[in-house]
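Homework help board

Subject: predicted structure for assignment chain

Our instructor gave us this sequence and asked us to write out the predicted structure in token form, then describe one feature. I got the tokens but I'm not sure how to describe them. Can anyone check?
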Amino acid sequence: MTPKQHRLILRFCLALLLFLIGNLVFSLWRQQASIDLAIAKGQQLYMSADGQPLGLDAAELANLNTADSTLVFVDALPMTLAESRPWADLGCTANSCAHLTYYDRATGGTVNQVLLLHDNSVLAQWQDDLARPAGSSFIANEAIKIAADDPAVTAVLGNIGDGNPAMIPMSAWLADDACRDEWCVDLTFHNPAGDGRIFHVFVNMTHQTVARTFYTRARPDLDVAAPVSQRDAFTDGCHEQDGWNVCWEMTAHDGVLFRDATYEETAVFSSVKITQVEAWYPSWPGGYRDEIGFSATVPPFGDTIVNELDDGFEVRQLFTEFTRWPNCICCYRYEEIMRFFADGSFEPRFISYGPGCDDLSIYRPFWRLDVDLDGPEGDQVWLWQETEWIEAEAELELFPFVDNLGPDGFKLATGDGDLLYRWTMLPTDPLGLDEARFFVLNDKELEGEQPLSPGPGDTFQPPRQWLNDEPVSGEDIVLWYVPLLKTKKTEPLWCMPDPEPGINQCEAILRAQITDELPQPTAEELAAMATATPVVVETAATPAPTPTPRPVQGDTVEEVILNAGCGACHAIGPLGEGHKVGPDLSAIGYEATGRIPDMAATDYIRQSIVEPNYALAPTCPNGPCMPNIMPQDYGQRLTQEQIDEIVKYLLTLDGTQERAELPVVGDGSTSGFPKGGTAAKGGGNMVGGIDPTSTSAQLVMIGIVLLITLFLLWKRPYDEEEP
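My token output:
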């Protein structure tokens, strides 16, 4: 090589090196701009009409504990009058104190502080290792940055800022992943391909990685108008009527807190609130830890309403996650209601209107009722057991709560002196699948009275962690009530996706019936109970349950399979979705033979439908198959004829059936991307899901060119003359 050629090559390498460095700087700027845009979109979803309530500068408060590197600031929120009471003697009143939440990476839980706002002094601090924080505008920033660097995300969205978010970042969990116990956040985007599906990005905030990406179903828009109401509106107040005097106030994330309820000037309860709403999807498997409140994932939507009833009054508040309801795919609409009756009885009610993120789901509102009958001390608890009322001595968890009721339809009774209430869950499920968990606990400090972060998913924590055999009778008690509202994709629809507004909601009703006495039944009454039809305490507004659950609807076996929700978890030949939680059944007719020795394929498939835990499949898309993921009630919901037809259909599947193309749903107006595309905007250069112009690829190229340049400089021919 001549010196002239050497200089030309060296100049070319230097120019290429400068170009690559410039391109890297531009790419980093562009990536940061994309992240900033995505963060701005995420924060916009959190913004209320009036901004942060009461002028609370959460950004300023976030800097108070920056010295501790293990703490991640989550949020700072003003506290209501009832929430402030434990620290009232320290000067804490309504809106004068804030609740600060930090995530502790060292323990996996939260550090909580109560702050007196006028001087930022810490009045109290406690650690909750089981708490999993809800989403917040602060957490959205970190979650989006983590997602932006993941190849599985860029392969679908391209630049994350181009993505169209479906809802705010939600605190969520996966039953078959570390996200079951660790803190994870779900980011949701409309699929850029325009098919109407939602693209989920699960971000593990503990390890700062993307745990999983997957899709959930699409659904077309309904021909109904969007609701006309004011978002982030609510009305605190008090009401006196029919012997009742009760007040209420909207909390940041524990719903409407009803407080200081008295009947005929006698105390009934000091507070009632909903600490979280857990949504469980077997097709993931996992779900969300929703919260309702003025700074929650599902905010208030419209003023708090007081309605007259024939024999009392009710206070109700609507919460809606998105203003396009019901024409949104992943959005939530709840209603918290308290009814008070002239005879002294009352009813906490909860309605889920849907639609949720997938076909099969269970909604679980966590009610906390601080019962102070005639004052906080001296409460008595009785439990109906088989043939008599017995006094409960220690804390307990009741499940099932709707079975083995007393002669008058009640399960539990609490009292103090002459004031006595009996408790039951009113039947509302059209298939007779009403169920709830009920906890009776000794009321202790920092066991739910304070603003409360949700616990790990599918564990009923809180309150289960506080169940430690402490006495309840003669003590100050608190009740926790968690109804299980199960969706059904069949007739009648029941809090299902694609509802007609106000028709297909599901409702849970807890009846607290005032009574004069709690008599033990006579022998004749017990004999009559053995043959009598169960007592229905009150007919709810929703359809009454039938003695035999109504079957899943469908004119063909394919319709029955899809209406039963099987396609939400499984690929079943041409039906359903693959790569979800359930094993691929596209060749089950072949694979079922010999899976269990001496058991015919027909018997194996049938048993797996009616008793899903009988024999789990060897593998599932996300790892080993887990028990209790598949619904356990198909033996009730499907007729024998339907089960026979499903078994026959599955036996024909040998893996050769072609899958149908996923149809494009809707007009694309909500996705923001052209329909029919196969790659995300900006993703045309993707190879194998990796962008060749990514930061890592550019750094490798810069390194190679730099080494060549240094080599040429080292080998520069000083002793040669230019010809």
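Reply (TA_rk): Your tokens look well-formed. For the description, you could write something like this. The longest strand covers residues 266-281. That's the kind of observation they're looking for.
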